[in-house]
Every structure is written in structure tokens, then in C-alpha cells.
Amino acid sequence: MIASVTGIGWVKRESMGSGRGHQKFQSKDAALPKLTSRMVFGEVSPHFGRLDEYSKLGLAAAAFALKDAMQDKWKNKRPIGIIVSTVHGCLATDIDYFETVMTFGGNLASPNLFACTLPNIFLGEAAIRFGLTGPGFAVNEPKLTGLRGLRMALSSMLIDDCLTMLVGTADPGRPESFQHDTNVTPGALFLFIEKSPADDSLSYGGLDMAPSGDILFDGAPAHSLEDIFKRISKGLTK
Amino acid sequence: MESRGTEIKKIWIVDANAVTALGQNLGDTWEGLVKGATGIREIDRFCPQGYYSRLAACVEGLKPTGDRSLIHSLVEILFKGIGPVPSDAVLVTATTKMGIDNLERLRRKEAARGGDVLLSCLPEMVSQKLGLKDTGTNVSASCASSTIAITQGASLIASGLAEAVIVCCADVVTEFTFSGFCALKVVSAFPARPFDRSRSGLTLGDGAAALLMMSEERAVRDARSCIAVVRGWGASNDAFHITSPAQNGEGLVMAIGQALARAGLKQEDIFAVSAHGTGTTYNDLMEIKALRRVFGGRDIPVYSVKGSIGHTTGAAGGIEVALAAKALSVRMVPPTTGFKDPEEGAEGLVSAQTAPLAGDLCLTSNSGFGGINAAIVLERGKSI
């Protein structure tokens, strides 16, 4: 086994929260919940309100996963990495930002919106909020499985580059005005994975690599992070 | 927990190319760089009227083909200068904004392929172009995107999960990015002057690079020559601010420390530094502080290529690694174009002249929005 999953966090249409404390809800319009900092951190955070929807979504799921792994409180910065997979990322913000260029002219374009036109920006926000000094980057794949990011994380763990990581997916879905067809379900999901867990009792299961290159969760091939999430969820409801 | 005791594989760079405003291949870019030439000139790709700067380092004559993004044309040029890539190579690409020019065209009601806007389009395009089995993954980590892509490629090879990795990075100057950096007030009205006391910001540039990396065993088996060895790498987050670097340079110091530790080296083993050197007040200040912390009072040669080729954002790290490999092979430290008067702390480190590279090891580093830092230690291979 390369690593253990010791925390999960998610924001979906049907529910959000973490493995050891979540809430289900029935959304009337099947939309994602409108996230506030109070819902995510239990307190008001002006930074959170300034983020775009993609960043709020990803940061919320990452925060829930850290809470689940009992890693949300900290004193000293920690070498925890974070990898997020996304298809659309901040495309909606790209569109909004360029509207300010078209409307107001280049020199009056919005710097605040521009700062949110990179898909890794919320990882920096997560790093600041939770003191995470490991590598943080976004991964873009045509189909949102999250497995490519997970493979990179496991590769780092195999050679002891980074021993603890948040690995997840975050996608707000295709912006309405963007016509290119993509088949992505909006939502976010993060796993907290540790090569050497501080507390084995928190483990939901082990991650490994098969000789074929497949990622295994508890010995069986994982087809996506969503697949791992479902298998963990099944255990939670037993 | 059970440990695998993974044997760390050695990593060779066996092929490299770069396209910049200085040249349509690595050799031409290098020649221009050592002459102190600059590709920075007035923008003609879009109308810069209304902006306080009119300068960028664009690849001359780069035009979109049909409804495809400019990146498509740039990558076409890039792969004219790269040799065979094995079909089993894992593909890792890096771009910050991919075909964002196509978003501009769509918003202006012009014909453009929407799919080019998605960052995952770059690996898809490169995979098809090279006939790879892997459909590829794009890494996006602001201005350290391609440096991180190289660290991830190196990690895949070192851990034995891949024998060959092709890293391809590209970004182009668009009104989208130009206006954004202008809105943040980090673009200079004059050509960028990295590490200079009178620097006033960065100059954006077009750029692309491709680096084929292999495990030593695979490279020997495939009879590939070694351009450079990737000895070490590191990556960190400042956990300090979204758009400003940690002013004491602690994140960069950490990334460099990891890279040296991975390589099993000490700071005195390094003989030159290819710095990020954007020409912005805060980046250059942070870097000099970090380098002084790592290298102490030693006056190690430090250079930035951004006064010549501009800041190529997501492609910067890949281009700079390719150029650093060239610098090692010819044992020459290139000049920092635009540099005249050293900023505080940079005295004795940065020069506008070429200098001999007195050893076989150098360091490259990049930092970006979101607090990311990445560093790579390269060792001299055979000549390109």
C-alpha cells in the first residue's frame, strides 16, 4: 500500500460535508448550494466572499476533507500538497473578466476578476488558510476522473517527495454561454491521503498502484475519485 | 505502514526545443540571448491603444490558422525542432491560458473553435500530433506551470511509473492576459529590466518548449544522448498571499532546499542560477533575498532571460530549463538583458555580460500566483 485515505470532503447537488459529519439536502432546482464562509468554516471570512464559484467549491471540499482528517486546526505551516483536477475550472470567471475588458477598455479591466482567472488560485487560498506548504497545482483532463492527479500524488509519495496530500476534483460545470460540449457533473470532492497516517483509525482504505498502472483502492481498481468516494460512502452508511 | 523501498531512477533530458520571440528553435533563441538581443517590441497582435504599455515579446509572424488558437500555430513550429518521441511516452503539458485568444474571438463574434479555450486541449493536441498512446495531462500552476510539469514528469520517471515523459508547454500573448497584468499594474511601460534598481515591471512574451525526459536505462536502450540530467527538484507554497510572493523568500528557499536534497548536493555544488527574474519589484526582491539565504555571501552568477524573451508565463520554466541545459553544455552564463544597476543585494550576482560557467551544475526556479515555487537542479550532459 502506498497511502491511506484518512479524510473526504465534498460539495454536490445532493449533499455536502465530510465523511464524519455531513448533511444531505434536496435541492429544488438541482443546483449546487450557494456556499458561504459560515457554511464552510463556521465563521465569516471576507476572503471567501471574494472568490469565484469554482474557487469556493474547491476550497469548501478541501476544507471539509481536512476537517474529516482532523487536520483543519494548525499552529505551524505543514508540508501538505494539494492537487485539483478540473475541466472548466475558472472559465466562467474568464468570460466575466473579458466582458470587463470589452466594456470598460483594457486599462479599466477588473484586477480582482483577473486574479481569479487561474485554476490554481484557490489552492493558494487553501494554503494560506490551512498553512499548507506542499506543492499545489491544477490538473486538466478531458474527462473529470481525478485519477491523473491522484497518480501524480502517489508518484510523489513513492519517492518521498510529499507524504501528505489533498487530491480532488472541482468543477462548476459548463458556463451557459460557452457552447463547447463537455460532459461534467458540477461539484467538488477531495480526499486527504497520507503515506504514514498519524492515526490509523481514521483510514477509510488504502491506495496502491497495480503493475498495470491502475490505481487500486482497497485492492480493487478505482475508475475515478467519484468511484472511491462511492465505495467509502457505502461503508459510512453500513 | 509498509514501505516499498522504491529505487530512484536517474533522469536524462534527451531532446529539447524552444520557440520564443528570439528564435523559432532553441539554437536561435540561445544565439540571440548570448548576444544580448531582445525580442521585445511594439505589439501588433491587437491594438494596445488605451494601455499604459505597448510592449511584448511576440513570436514574429505568428498567426492563427483558421478557427484554431494561436497556440496551435506555436506548437506546430515547436515540433519541427524535436526528434522522435516514443509512442509510450507519458505526456505532461503546461499552459496557464491555452487558447484564450479564441475566447476573445468568440466574444467578438468571430469564428473560433471553443474547445481550444479549455486547458485540456493542449495535451489532446500534442498527443495527436506526436501519435502518443497517452492522451496527456495539463498542469496549471500559474507562472511555475511548466516547472511543476517537469517536476511531475521527473517524479513519474524516478518512481518507476514511467520510462519516458514528454513535457510540452506553451502560452501566448493575448489581450486577455495583457489587460489583466496591466490591470494588476505589474506590466512595465519599458522593456523588462530584471534585478535592476530602476525596474518597473514585467514584459509578456510568447513561448513554447518541449523536453523529452527518459530514465537513464531507457535512454541507453534507445541510444539517446544526454543533453542534461535532472538531478533534483522541489516545489512549495508560500502560504502567504495569493498574488504577492512571501517577502522573505521562505517558500522559494524551501523549494530550492528540496531540490538540493533530492540531488544529494550542497549549495556550493551549484555554479549558476537561472532565476525567475520577472522585473517586478516584489518578485525580484524576494528572489534575491531567497538566493542570498541559500547561497550566503557567495557571488554565484544569477541570470534572467525575461529581458530578452519576455515573461512567457506557463511556458517560462520549460524554456528556461532548455536554455539552462544549453548554458551547461557550452559552459556559458548568458547575460541578463536590460540589467544595468543592481537592486539592493544583487551586487556581484547579476550581469549584463556573458560569463564562463565554472561547473557542471545549475539551478533553475520559478514562482507564481497562488504562492507556488518550484526549483530544478540540472547537471551537464553531452552537447546539444
Textual characterization of the structure:
The complex is a heterodimer of chains A (238) and B (384). With 238 residues, chain A is of the alpha+beta class. Chain A has helices spanning 37-41, 46-50, 53-68, 91-104, 111-114, 121-130, 147-158, 225-237, and strands spanning 3-11, 15-18, 21-24, 80-86, 136-140, 164-171, 187-194, 205-209, 215-217, 220-221. In chain A, strands 1, 2, 3, 4, 5, 6, 7, 8, 9 and 10 form a ten-stranded mixed beta sheet that branches. With 384 residues, chain B is an alpha/beta fold. Chain B has eleven helices and 14 strands. In chain B, strand 9 (272-274), helix 9 (281-295) and strand 10 form a beta-alpha-beta unit. In chain B, helix 8 crosses helix 9 (281-295). The longest helix of chain B is centred in the last third of the chain and has 15 residues, at 281-295. At the A-B interface, helix 4, helix 6, strand 5 and helix 7 of A face helix 3, strand 5, helix 5, helix 6 and strand 8 of B. Strand 5 of chain A pairs antiparallel with strand 5 of chain B, so a sheet runs across the interface.
